[in-house]
């Protein structure tokens, strides 16, 4: 006996085909969603920027290429001029080597250390932008205590001894205590002098020539110098102390 095949109306066929297609698309979307959200969480935790470039393919699908740029952070170092402005009443602009000239007519200058004054270092080969430090205490005519930043270490150094090694006790040449050892001092550095918080300029501004060439004779000159001013004897120095390797090998500000 011949079996009779059931006749399915055309409308029912179209409806069944639509339902199957919809189910297939929904399944694919649900399968992709967890991966997509996972990538979002990863990007958020990694703190990265995404730059997307969309490309069109032959199959009319869009693909996205993602580039990641991670943030980098670097330790901030307070420059010596910024520290000197914040730790003293001296408010000057420019590089440290320019402070002495910029103070003319604005602040009093001299060669006698005072608390809250700023010691101005001359520029040298190893620190072409000079250096400034804040005087915290005057111990005696040859020794002071300073606070400074960006010297031989990154950051601020407090309570650092500095001694005057000039022949005439005029603080035109100094030695700074080495980091971690306040009883040992480094090389000789030429200085301009001290800038005081007072806004009155001295009647006779101190003008010094380059002292680098005369440092070797300072100790000998101290014994024979005829002056009406009594000065403390300069510490013994040698040629090895002249602008040695302990000077900061960078452009200080």
Automatic annotation (TrEMBL):
Positions of the Peptidase C51 domain: 55-178
Pfam families the UniProt entry points to: CHAP
InterPro entries named in the record: CHAP_dom, Papain-like_cys_pep_sf
PROSITE patterns xrefs: CHAP
Protein name as it appears in the record: CHAP domain-containing protein
Organism: Commensalibacter melissae
């Amino acid at each position: 006996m011949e079996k009779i095949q059931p006749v399915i109306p055309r409308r029912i066929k179209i409806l069944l085909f639509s339902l199957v297609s919809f189910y297939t698309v929904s399944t694919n979307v649900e399968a992709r969603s967890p991966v997509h959200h996972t990538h979002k969480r990863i990007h958020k935790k990694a703190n990265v920027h995404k730059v997307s470039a969309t490309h069109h393919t032959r199959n009319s699908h869009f693909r996205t290429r993602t580039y990641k740029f991670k943030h980098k952070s670097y330790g901030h170092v307070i420059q010596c001029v910024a520290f000197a402005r914040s730790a003293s009443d001296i408010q000057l602009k420019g590089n440290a080597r320019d402070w002495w000239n910029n103070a003319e007519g604005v602040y009093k200058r001299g060669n006698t250390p005072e608390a809250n004054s700023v010691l101005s270092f001359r520029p040298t080969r190893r620190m072409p932008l000079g250096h400034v430090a804040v005087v915290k205490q005057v111990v005696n005519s040859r020794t002071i205590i300073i606070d400074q930043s960006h010297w031989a270490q990154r950051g601020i150094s407090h309570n650092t001894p500095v001694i005057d090694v000039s022949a005439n006790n005029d603080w035109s040449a100094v030695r700074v205590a080495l980091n971690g050892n306040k009883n040992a001092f480094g090389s000789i550095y030429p200085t301009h002098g001290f800038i005081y918080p007072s806004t009155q300029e001295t009647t006779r501004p101190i003008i010094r020539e380059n002292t680098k060439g005369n440092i070797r004779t300072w100790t000998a000159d101290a014994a024979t110098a005829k002056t009406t001013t009594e000065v403390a004897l300069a510490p013994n120095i040698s040629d090895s102390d002249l602008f040695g390797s302990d000077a900061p090998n960078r452009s200080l500000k």
